[in-house]
Design goal:
Length: 253
């Protein structure tokens, strides 16, 4: 078996089909790691021919490590349920995995982000997502996970398309869900006590990074909304941190 595709999913019934279809023609097996979905993600994925493994965790590294454990291919490609492999990227992946003399253990994929379903972000990310299975040791990190790989790394042609932040409801739900984990990580890291002046500082930093550094201003109104959302998300995360530092129980916002 040459290529296993591992798809991380949660409540993805509206877009898991497109993710699977985008890799069907290059994958020898498709594995969906379903993080406690409450919708029809599992049923739809199985109908599309994927093997589904339920996992309950707040750690993205653990989700990817379960995929590593279940995959049987010589190579593993990781995507998320809101990502799509383009035809050009699929061709590049096939060329890499069939190459007899391949000195590289992993490849970075170029990812284009789309907000509100259609607006392309100017910044292109580069993420390690394609691995020789026997060189990938593990993933680490609860939210911002990273791989540990033996061997050399290269980059691959083509784009991975990421349809993130589809609407305001989904964005707000994401902040509510993950802000507590983000705050807990800061508590464990010994973050200084939250004072009022820290809030505008982290919010302005988030806004500046999204709107200026990443070029959100080039996208127009959606770029401004996204930058404001990033500032709001930081506010909620640090408000939860303040709450934890006061010894108060944290529930839903």
């Amino acid at each position: 078996m040459k290529l296993s595709v591992v798809i991380i999913a949660k409540n993805a019934q509206d877009f898991i089909t497109d993710a699977i279809i985008s890799v069907k023609h290059i994958a020898d097996e498709i594995i969906v790691i379903d993080n406690e979905s409450a919708d029809k993600t599992k049923t739809i994925a199985e109908k599309e021919g994927a093997k589904v493994f339920p996992v309950r965790t707040l750690s993205f590294a653990e989700l990817r490590n379960v995929g590593l454990e279940k995959a049987k291919g010589e190579w593993i490609l990781y995507i998320d349920s809101d990502e799509r492999v383009t035809k050009e990227l699929a061709v590049s992946i096939k060329e890499c995995i069939i190459r007899e003399e391949n000195k590289f253990s992993a490849y970075k994929l170029k990812r284009k982000n789309f907000y509100f379903g259609a607006y392309a972000w100017p910044t292109i990310e580069k993420l390690e997502r394609l691995f020789k299975r026997n060189t990938l040791r593990q993933w680490y990190g609860t939210l911002h996970e990273s791989p540990i790989v033996d061997g050399e790394l290269s980059e691959i042609n083509g784009f991975l398309l990421h349809y993130t932040h589809r609407d305001l409801t989904q964005m707000l739900e994401k902040t509510i869900e993950w802000s507590k984990t983000e705050a807990e990580l800061r508590v464990k890291a010994g973050h200084p006590a939250m004072k009022w002046w820290r809030f505008p500082r982290v919010m302005l930093t988030a806004f500046f990074d999204s709107y200026v550094k990443q070029g959100g201003w080039k996208v127009g109104t959606p770029g401004f909304i996204e930058a404001m959302y990033q500032a709001y998300s930081m506010f909620i995360t640090y408000a939860r941190l303040w709450e934890m530092q006061q010894g108060k129980p944290t529930g839903r916002v």
